[in-house]
Amino acid sequence: MKQTQIFIIGHKNPDCDSVCSAIGYAYFKNIVDKRHLYIPARAGELNSETKFALEKFGFEPPIEIESLAPTASDMELKKPIVASPYDSLKDVASLMKEKGIRTVPIVDASRKLSGIIGLKDIAEHYISTMGFGDLSTTPIDLNILVDTLDAKVITNPKGIDKLNGRIFIAAMQKSTILNRVRAGDVVILGDRTDVQIDLINSGCSALIITGNATISQEVVRLAAKKGTLIVSSPYDTFDTAKLFALSTPLQTIMSKEVPVAGLYTRISEIKRKVAESKYRCVLLVNGDNRLMGIITRTDLLHPIRKKVILVDHNEISQAVDGVQEAEILEIIDHHRVGDISTLMPIHVHNEPIGSTCTIIAGFMFLHQIDITEEIAGLLLSGILSDTLILTLSTTTERDKENAHKLADILDIEIEEYGKELLTASINIKGKNAREILLHDFKEYQLGTKKVGVGQIMFLDEEEIGAKEEEIKSEMEHLRKEKQYDLVAFLITNPLGKGEEILVKGDERIIEKAFAVKIQDGKCAIPRTLSRKKDFIPAIGYFCESASGQN
To answer: Torsion over CA of 28, 31, 37 and 39, rounded to 10 degrees?
Structure first.
């Protein structure tokens, strides 16, 4: 039985805690819940700190998901019922009746898509051929005709493989028939030997003799001499005429205007294509145009959603694209309560502690899960990263307790490993201003204000100072691009005792929130700030009070 996939994913611009908690929680869930397959994922490029942690503990980067919007790949697709371009209309009509379907894809021997045919196409062709006409534009394959009529070839002296010319039903007086028929015509008639002989002599290319009538040797010899094809049909003249119209090969009437999509086409786009298509379906093909499936209106009746668990965030602005089209099953977080809503009640675990990895480690200790050294290393990395080696104001006793338990599993010193991790995090060599700005960047909606906040740690003041003007210029570009009211960039030296803030946009927000004066787009605050506990709440209070006054 196929397991349902559930993705566990953190926020955009993922940091170490976001990625490590996703991997850790997937490990935990796959042990305690065998009904589903939990897959860790990320919503963007990995930063240098996270890459260091993954490499140190032997993990491949989790898969990157650009959008949670459902695609055709999320559907349970059945093997499509298909036909060949060389099948007859009778074949495909019988197939439609047997399978209870209205549309059939046409594929070649290698399953490459050739076209499509629907009941409406068959009906239109049948009506258009009621008066028969000329086969010169759409010759009928003799083998298909014989198969459609369950017929026998009596003579074929010229080795004809396709029937051309006009189709004529000889159901009138002999004189009338002979006056109307022309050389090269295909004539359908019954057991009228005298008329058969006259038609052969007049140059008809083929006779379709109906009702399994006995054909005289005189007629057979004359047909062989004149080069006339004779086919014996078991049906009466009326039924033979009807089936004759159904012996047309599909390749002559199939439509090549095929509504197609790929496995990763969004369901919203597929719905639009289905609604616009006269076939009320979409055919799924791969890069080689080989048919993989068919999606009809019936398949789209029930909602199709990816299943997801969010870690280390609970705000739409920070979530991967398409999160509102997904089925959110759980949220595990340690930030303020955001604006994500769900249709059904879900499990939400949100604690005011330093790291999401602390929560995940707590689950494992509570359930007495065997924590491997590799998983312990990742969880410890997330905790030390988000708490700045257990020194930030957000750090709780639970963070410290769980960090030390994980360090014991690894038999390492927290201070020593923390400095290794921090060194990997603050390396900005070779990075441009935008990469530095977006290294750890989050978006917030505070009252009516849209705010973007980046944060970075450094040890070398000259190195970061040399890039300050470029960073401020990039902040202004980003502010205009995303229409932020404020872009702030927190620059922290973990060995120092303060914070420098670069500001672009509404400077009053920072000045009022921290009682400082901004000069030349920056200011200093004499303490280290936690973005989620100190910075965002402070500016959030101001933004919300300003919104209330408006």
So the answer is: 30
CA atoms within 13 A on the CB side of 345: 0
Mean pLDDT, the chain cut into blocks of 10 residues (550 residues total) = 86 95 98 96 93 96 95 88 90 90 93 92 73 67 88 92 84 86 89 91 92 92 93 90 81 89 93 92 93 92 92 94 94 91 91 97 96 97 93 92 97 93 78 88 90 84 86 95 95 76 92 92 82 86 69
Question: What does DSSP say about strands 63-64 and 281-285: parallel, antiparallel, or unpaired?
Answer: unpaired
Domain 433-549: CATH superfamily is: DHHA2 domain (3.10.310.20)
Residue with tokens 């197939």: 95
DSSP string, 225-237: HHT-EEEE-SS-H
CA 513-313-422 angle, 5° bins:
80
Answer CATH for 4-70+306-425 from 3.30.70.100, 3.40.1190.20, 2.40.40.20, 3.90.1640.10 = 3.90.1640.10
Claim: this prediction has a pTM higher than 0.85: no
Q: Hey, what amino acid is at 510?
A: I
Q: DSSP string of 268-335?
A: HHHHHHHHH-TTSEEEEE-TT-BEEEEEETGGGSS----EEEEES---GGGSPBTGGGSEEEEEEE-S
Cβ–Cβ contacts within 10 Å for residue 44, how many? 18
For residue 396 the two structure tokens come to 């709780």
- Looking at 3.40.50.360, 3.40.50.2300, 3.40.1390.20, 2.60.300.12, the CATH number of the domain 130-247 comes to 3.40.1390.20
> DSSP letter at 150?
T
